[in-house]
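Re: Re: token formats

Sure, here are both.
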Amino acid sequence: MACLRWLSVPTVVVLCATMLAAQDAKHSSGRTLPAMPKITTPVMFDTPEADQILSALQVFPADNPWNADVSKWPVHANSKNIIASIGADKPFRYDVDMGFILVPSDQKRIDLKATSYPDESDKGPFPIPENLPIEGWPVNYKRTPKLKDLTLDDVQRDKIKEGGDRHALVVDPTNRMLYEFYQMRKTDSSWTAAQTSIFDLKSNKLRPETWTSTDAAGLPIFPAVVRFDELQRGMVEHAMRVTVKRPTFTRQRISPAV
């Protein structure tokens, strides 16, 4: 961690990969975009099919801050102190729990009631498949002895009442739309969520000023996820979110985060 170039919210540092100018039929990183494969059924994130689809997906326009080339930006005036407060020699720890699912453009849509933040939630109906992964599925459950026997349906219904954030992410790659849910839970009749957010991945449009989102900062989660297809290519092609414990730098809101 050599320097800090963009700060989104008080406890989140965003580190950006170097980006090249996007051209016709090219990804914002500069590589040529392959044709988007035809998607006929929901595709789980941890599959070769998902890797092929994601390699053809541009997440937000090339000039979006998530895709910005920050290599020549000036270093933040307080960068040294901020890095010191985080711990320059501390190791990064990665989170493998933020799964998602890719859905076809004709995925069946259902209505969903936002239970906690209805006034700051986007309205449905939403393309929610039956095999929607909940945050932590499958790795956290399969590697934890007391959780390893739970099925996806058990996790969706929160059978053992774990609670928590229970994020759920749905991506429609064909239409380049993103649907994110906070405290998502399956019921006998449908699904419920505390908050719902919709992002148009073709647009730089932000959520209304001061509105929350699934990650509470007004920002999307999916664009920050480090994906397997990126690791295969040897380059993370977007900004990454890093959570900092007990930072000493000034707590303030810096747009576009809330």
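Second one below.
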Amino acid sequence: MAYKFQNISVLVIESSRALFTVAKDVLTTFGIKEIHSAYDIKKGFEIFRREKPDLIMTDWLGDKNDGLTFIKQLRTDNRSPDPFVPVILMTGFTHEDKVIAARDVGISELLVKPYTALSLYNKIESLIENPRAFVRTRNFLGPDRRHKRIASFSGPEKRVMEPLPVRR
């Protein structure tokens, strides 16, 4: 399905201005008109609070794991205007421990760099077509980390899906 994205707003947090420009150009080709930029998590959280974007795309932001810190903050900080906002983490780090760390802070989708316009479009489309329920525990708030449902699992730890209130 071809979507028209002209009415959504996106916050892109990218440490490289050149890579921000690439992301902005791709989003513009999708028809997105409202694109906000930040180059660090402090400014990113400030823009997130003020603009309340419909989608956030963030880079890993270096060796300090700032991108993950930002995602955890927007999911758990009581100043967060929307802890349920979809987040696409753009990263070149694909080692299993990095992917697990990203999943465990509450990313919605992982987009591996370098990426194509089609792969970004597919991630955004997946957020629309296959939204995952959010899970809240003592230590986690984010999309259900399971992409697949295994009907045959019936152990005592099987979670029951309960609908959460619709965001916005």
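The two ends are 24 Å apart (CA to CA). The first helix runs from residue 17 to 29.
- S.
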